[in-house]
Amino acid sequence: MNIYFTASETEDAQTALESLTGRYGHVSLDKAEVIVALGGDGFMLETMHSFMAFNLPIYGMNKGTIGFLLNTYREEGLIERLKAGEITRLHPLKMTAVDMHGVEHEALAINEVSLLRESRQTAKIRIAIDGHVKVSELTCDGVLIATPAGSTAYNYSAHGPILPVNAGVLALTPISAFRPRRWRGAILPREAKIELNVLEANKRPVSATADAVEIRDVDRVMVEEKRDVMLRLLFDPEHNLEKRILDEQFIL
């Protein structure tokens, strides 16, 4: 099997890279059948963004801390593991953010798109779904839209729901909502088109972030699933992403 290896800059990951390439070889991307990423969850996210256009399955091995998006690191039997791996298909979110100067910015998010206040004052955000206003004024620290893959990350820390990978839904979750105080967010169909308008943007500036891409001083943000882009992640059958997300709901 032709493997393209990539690794984070940590000493542990670089040592693993040297060992694995010596044992299994290393080919260029144009000849690769699979990408093997060595690092933590942050590096795995970077890898997915960097190699999205190559349409190759990505198999991660944990050389970081938590390793939620990665398989257990083991040098032996890699070819067999790759052949037996189960594919999880993910679609990113497309964020279109218009700043206060009228400039339009686009970025893709695998985990979430989040809006966050930039100053000491709370943000005021209007939320519309498919052209219909659902929350006329959300006073908050921010709000985020999470994919199922990202629902166990920042979304979960903000008390949003954990979403099964194949459920076909997105999580819309407020961050420290002050008004309406009791609103806890919503679960939306994946086809939903979400528009977030920043109210009093000059007085209460807000930034928008799609994974690692941040746009400052936004006026409005549109979010929808990018169905024509697909990521394929490989997981060992005994520890696939669907099972991990299910198990996260029972961790006390």
Largest sheet: 6 strands, antiparallel
Report strand order across the widest sheet.
Answer: 6-5-16-13-8-9
Strands, count: 17
Mean pLDDT: 95
Multimerization status: single chain
What would you call the structural class? alpha+beta
Compute the number of structural domains. 2
Question: What features would you highlight for this structure?
Answer:
252 residues; alpha+beta; Rossmann fold; Tumour Suppressor Smad4; 2 domains; 6-stranded antiparallel β-sheet
Describe what this molecule looks like in 3D.
- Helix content is 17%, strand content 39%.
- With 252 residues, it is of the alpha+beta class.
- The strands form 3 sheets. Strands 6-5-16-13-8-9 form a 6-stranded antiparallel beta sheet, with no helix packed on it. Strands 12-11-10-7-14-15 form a 6-stranded antiparallel beta sheet, with no helix packed on it. Strands 1-2-3-17-4 form a 5-stranded mixed beta sheet, with helices on both faces.
- The chain starts with a strand and ends with a helix.
Question: Brief overview, please?
Answer:
Helices cover 17% and strands 39% of the residues. With 252 residues, the protein is an alpha+beta fold.
Topology:
Elements: E1 3-7, H1 11-24, E2 34-39, H2 41-50, E3 58-62, H3 78-84, E4 86-90, E5 93-99, E6 104-109, E7 112-117, E8 123-129, E9 132-140, E10 142-146, H4 154-157, E11 169-175, E12 186-189, E13 194-199, E14 206-210, E15 213-215, E16 218-225, E17 231-235, H5 241-248
Parallel strand pairs: 1-2, 2-3, 3-17
Antiparallel strand pairs: 4-17, 5-6, 5-16, 7-10, 7-14, 8-9, 8-13, 10-11, 11-12, 13-16, 14-15
